């Protein structure tokens, strides 16, 4: 909304920023100071009332109240009534110039034109209006009626339109609001959505040996550990192109957000980006915590819960006619005890209703080609254009646009290759934006930045998604895991290895468990490796039985941590002082060192 100078002069900076970015229909609560303070001060200079002039204490008190009311009336005038005329709601009593007022952002803005409104500050955002776009409601209702295919009376049709609105509202409430890492309040998906690009897995995995992967990296001028030989394809395009689609990606790559976006676009009908007359239903697979897995009933319940008429008949016709878009999010998030059962149930359902459209998402490491006749795509790492779009979406407020915050953040991230490498997924790019937003800069000590990024992958991501910890976590613990990862990182980096076989990393895990006094001896190295790859994504399977760290930056940071923990600084200087490959490690060691200045002087 546009604000005038005289309006800005009456409000605090927080309210100013909010109103500048508001649509107008948001419901907010503000604190208003009404009237002129000088006039009130003059009124208070009137002669004092003497208790002896009144027949009783009650009469004296009543006289004081009446005088106060009269004084406020003279100062405030008709401002309270004028606020009410604007559909604003004053809360509490009227015995003070300071009042709490609730109403829409537009009405609050209009109230700033009142001469009796002196100063306004934002108290809180009360809520956003629940609005289902008419076009989406009409599209859903008309398609619902068409699928039923029987003659319906006007009363039933009216009920369908009313319930269609509720279905769309429910969908928006559940899937158009995202909980973003580190932010206390959810944000609209459209405000931060960045276009998804995908790659075919076969093209990424075309280097099947460790030697081939190492050679490809050495000839690659960037720090990327992945090979992208095939052309990127737009995510929405492939969602329209294939009826059965498997979307793979690393932790935080944006798989869940992508599926939500597809569903929201399908609800828009002709104005949306998803083609065809289809009804979207999104199921989060982590809900399957028991042996009760009845996909048909869950879909049916989605319509019944909105009180859509003839919901059972509609569900049957919807599936028979192939008009369902079933979005199954988070195959990897199914509890281990139910994993095979859920896969069997999904495959049975797809086989019976194969004429419908199915899109499943799964972490790459957890997927083992379980589904036949599904076209597989992997969400590609962000390129420069996507990264810039994401950052600009993040810093979208009018204040940030005026200050060029997005461009400054991008320039800062892009100025260092190691930091830029972290910005290839929405998860860690979100982390970088949060870091920049806090101080308009990134931490000077890169070791601190990378340690926080590692913490995101180890702890906070699973916590934010409300995923249960598997037993391996409670037995091994995050602190021990970091020590183990540092040992794996150093052992391989010292051997000039960025890629290593599954057996090599299993041997390293077993060695750590055997040699560390604090590590449990009964843990299965294979299960630990699964936890690190499938549930955290810190190690990534680049080809069959070939692993690497997800980011070269993380391997370098963990290597530096190991060097400091084991007092290997002098050895580092002696062997690798002029080795370009160790340059980042040298810089990071300086950041993680807890030793004295004599040690520090060795590497500076």
Automatic annotation (TrEMBL):
Residues 243-361 form the NACHT domain. InterPro entries: NACHT_NTPase, P-loop_NTPase. PANTHER family: SLR5058 PROTEIN. This is NACHT domain-containing protein. It comes from Dolichospermum flos-aquae CCAP 1403/13F.
